[in-house]
Every structure is written in C-alpha cells, then in structure tokens.
Amino acid sequence: MLKLQCATGDRMDIHDNARLTPRGRAWLVRLIESGQTPAAAARAVGVCPRTARKWLARCRALGPDGLADRSSRPHRLYRPTPQPIVERIIALRRERMTGKQIAVTVGVAPATVSRILKRNGLSRLASIEPPQPIRRYERATPGEIIHFDIKKLGRFEKTGHRITGRKSGHRRSDGAGYEFAHVAIDDHSRVARIDILPDERKESAITALRRTVAYFKNLGVTVDRIMTDNGSCYRAKPFANACRQLGIRHIMTRPYTPQTNGKAERFIQTALREWAYATAFETSEQRRCALPSWLHRYNWHRPHASLASKTPISRLGLSEDNLLRLHT
After folding, report:
1. Disulfide: which of 10, 78, 155, 230 matches 176 by Cβ 3.0-4.6 Å?
2. In 10 A of CB 89, how many CB atoms?
C-alpha cells in the first residue's frame, strides 16, 4: 500500500478548481493498487481514466515524489534569445535605457527584454547602480548636540502578552493609562538618560530638558545644542524660553525625516529590548524602578558597538572606577 509522505507545514499553491492535490493523487493510486481498474478509480475521484493512468505511471516510476506538482516551464526553449543579444540588452540597460527603448534598438519584443532584465536582476533602475553609502556623522565633543525623543509606554498591572505570549485567557490592564519615556542621548559619547513622565506636554518636556542639562553638568559636560522632532511640546513657546534661559540652541529635524534624529531612535530600540521588554515585570511600577540600574549599566559598563566596544562614559574621560559619579 502506498503512503504519501508530506510535511503538514509545507505550503503549496493549488488551483481553486483542481480535482486532485498530492494527497488526492495518492488516494487515487491506492484505489488502483487495491484492485480497482483505472476507470473505476477515476470515476470515484472525479477525473478521467487517462489522468488516473498518468498518476499511476508517475508514482511507479518516481515513488511518492512523482505525485508532486511539476513546473509548466519547458525543459528547452524552442528559439532561445542568442547570448550576444542578451549581453547587448544588459549593456544598454546599464546605460539606463528603458525596456521599450532597448526593444526598439535591439529589435526584439519588449516582453523578451523584460524577461532578460528580470532574470539578471536589472528590472529596476535602482539595481543598476550600487546603493549610496549611509552617511553617518558624529559631533567632535560631548554636549555639542543632545538628541531628544519621546516613547509612549503602556502602564500595566499584570505581565502582558508581549512577555507571556498569551493574547487571551488572562486579565488585561485596560484603563491603566500610559506613561512617557523622555529620552536624551549625547551625540558624541552616547551617554543617555530617560525620564518617565506622565505625559508628552510642554511642561514634561521642559522638566526632562532641565534634568538632562543638570545631569550632564554633573558629569562635567556643558550642553550647547539639542535636537528634537517637530512635536507640539518642542514647538511650544515655553520650551523655547527654557532653552534660552539655559543658553541652549534648539534644532528641529526636517518633517518626515526621523533618520536625522537616528541616535535617539536607536537608543529607544535598545532600551525597549534590554529594559522595558527584557523582564517579565509584574507591574509598570516595577519596570520604572528597574530603569536607573539599567541606565547605569548602559552608560558605565555596557560596550557600545559604534564606540569600538567601549563604554559611553569612557568618552567623557571617566571610567567605571570613578566612585564619585558612579551612581549619578
């Protein structure tokens, strides 16, 4: 008796009107091998006797693998495009000519040009030239630019589905509200800090700004400029007044260009992965209490990839042995 071995996780595109799938073909072959004629087995399955004999022959020749679908592509093209023409099409494409222009120049059908370009990965103009290298910048001294951003975090009273993996059957924290992580990171040293505040309004943004300036002053760093996005709290007049009082120049990113403030965006990803979502906190208050120790480890002990595996605090001339500022 034939047994068709197939993985339940395999994905196969079956035509909506297909009479037989590989499993049905195996059943058809089993009916014939049990003693029924191909015609009787074909009637039971709903196909013609010729189809039944075809699958029986394939199974006997190739085993269960012979019952799988085959590509309809011919084994050999009747009139393949000569290689010199293929090479010319590729050369013209590298001169940034369109498919129709190439077809007229070479004297072949546009569909032929399209197939050749697709086969060689040249369908898009962006594939002709290598991508532009990512331009990275870094300020020369600490405090020259501090990047600010805000991340909205949900409060919770029980470990959520992000940690447990259960999206049903457990008590939710509906109505618990939100809290906002006001993030600041130095462009040169990558020394960072986070303030957990109840909202993202101008008052909270000013509070985060003043605390950040005081924090860096305690480390011997004077903040010259800050960079933020165009959020309403940063465009408010009280925030601008606070910057003037502190002697800080405020720079805002261009609209729809978050990569300009990429260091803050990247730090938020790291904080979420290594702090906010790294532990199965029972409540959001536990998550808040774990933040200072994680920030200390990030600034003083954690190697940073963009700093040649050195700690951010090392760029301020300090080290983890500096006990006066170790727990600042």
Report:
1. 155
2. 24
Above pLDDT 70, what percent of the chain? 84
Q: How far apart are CA 119 and CA 122, in angstroms?
A: 8
User: Is the CA virtual torsion 244, 245, 250, 255 positive or negative?
Assistant: negative
Mapped onto helix, strand or coil, the DSSP state of residue 228 is strand
Please report, for the chain, the start and end positions of each structural domain, with discontinuous segments joined by +: 22-67, 83-127, 146-316
Which among 19, 26, 8, 18 is positioned nearest to 68, based on CA atoms? 26
pLDDT at 128: 81
Q: Which long-range contacts (CB under 8 A, 24 or more apart) does 22-31 make?
A: 22/67, 22/68, 22/69, 25/55, 25/59, 25/67, 26/2, 26/59, 26/64, 26/67, 28/52, 28/55, 28/56, 29/2, 29/55, 29/56, 29/59, 29/67, 30/1, 30/2
Residue 186 has pLDDT above 60, yes or no: yes
Q: Which fold has domain 146-316?
A: Nucleotidyltransferase; domain 5 (3.30.420)
Indicate if the pLDDT at residue 3 is higher than 50.
Answer: no
d(CA 328, CA 325): 5
